[in-house]
């Protein structure tokens, strides 16, 4: 029997439909470094990659700048310090400078990301505020539409002018933009006082075999269903059941990739009584069927 050979997926560094990308030329960067107002913190590159299929970048020697990556759709991975970190919607990470790394979009559900490279005298302190001693911890923030508008404003201003005062405004706004992520808990204590949502997500992850309704999950956190639903959507941008289903499908990908379990066995392991429903949900989230995923990615 002729053996079918599956070609490895093509890696793409840059070049996506609808992408935005600006890299500061050396002469402008030199002026910024000598500007007393913004030399402590400044961007060197910025961009937005929507639905970045096959996006895959590796820097064995790391980058001279810090790299901020914020995922709004799909999934991706960051390989750093011996760890493989999952970046999901409403999660972000800052890659430290001079550290070997690789990042790539998910094979079937590629990420959409906003990103920026930054440097300056306080860049390390900004990174340390993000990491808080844990260099491999991805952070999550609730989706806020105004944050995207702020990013687009920064990008538009940079497109229009690199004059001295404009660069000052751009970099001050970028610092404010990053602060909206790093200091979100401190600036929005009302959201994080209801840490019940974080506890609920952890509860979901520990009980992937179960079937839950919104009422079940709300009761588990001693909240009314309406308050729980509103708080969950505010924090994650998703409904609880959709989020729970995404967690199940992510886990099923691990089984398909690393184990010899059949699809029927995986369904039973993850609490799906209807194999056809599982297959439809899997395809809706990943773009391909479980059997196709298994053939493409089985180790």
From TrEMBL:
SUPFAM superfamilies referenced in this protein's UniProt entry, alphabetically: Homeodomain-like, Regulatory protein AraC
Pfam families, A to Z: AraC_binding, HTH_18
InterPro entries the record matches: AraC-bd, Homeodomain-like_sf, HTH-like, HTH_AraC, HTH_AraC-typ_CS, Tscrpt_reg_AraC-type_HTH
Residue ranges of domain HTH araC/xylS-type in the record: 198-296
PROSITE patterns listed in its UniProt record: HTH_ARAC_FAMILY_1 (PS00041), HTH_ARAC_FAMILY_2 (PS01124)
Domain of life: Bacteria
Gene Ontology MF term list: DNA-binding transcription factor activity; sequence-specific DNA binding
Keywords: DNA-binding, Transcription, Transcription regulation
Protein's recorded name: AraC-like DNA-binding protein
Taxonomic lineage: Bacteria, Pseudomonadati, Bacteroidota, Sphingobacteriia, Sphingobacteriales
